[in-house]
Amino acid sequence: MSSLNVICPHCLKVNKIPQKDGYTKANCESCKNSLLDTTPIEADENNIDHILANSDIPVIVDFWAPWCGPCKMFAPIFNQTAQKYPLKALFVKVNTEALPNLGARFQIRSIPTLVVFKSGLEKKRNSGALDPLRLTSFINEFI
Ligand SMILES: [Zn+2]
């Protein structure tokens, strides 16, 4: 059976899990919390490279800032859509106000900007908030 490396959303430990169509239960070997938790990870300069490099499932990053109205409206759409992808995609947020170096490094010129990474490489980006349907089809290209 092939396996997948996934990042624990709680402690960021890399877990190797069997590849399946769906999962009813999977717990982190380190912190024992559920790997099925889809709450987006708040990334920073210390963990973003670890997350991008070690996730075999696509990583969807929302670059946002607290002062940005469209970002705030988009946040619940991002969180709710994430619930459809346990162990299929990893949802990550980067606060570009608190972390301007990351915004610069990933050349974020407007927010919100969504970037899809696979195997550590950027595959696609979208500037501007998406409605739930468009967000789903944006992600499904990589699932
Ligand atoms: Zn963990």
Automatic annotation (TrEMBL):
Q: Which UniProt keywords apply?
A: Disulfide bond, Electron transport, Redox-active center, Transport
InterPro entries per record: Thioredoxin, Thioredoxin-like_sf, Thioredoxin_CS, Thioredoxin_domain
Supply the CDD domains for this chain. Answer: TRX_family
What Gene3D superfamilies does the entry give?
Glutaredoxin, Zn-finger domain of Sec23/24
Q: In the UniProt record, does the keyword Disulfide bond occur?
A: yes
Thioredoxin domain spans which residues?
Answer: 19-143
Q: A Pfam family matched by this chain, by name?
A: Thioredoxin
Family, similarity comment: Belongs to the thioredoxin family.
Name of the molecule in the record = Thioredoxin
What organism is this sequence from? Aliarcobacter cibarius
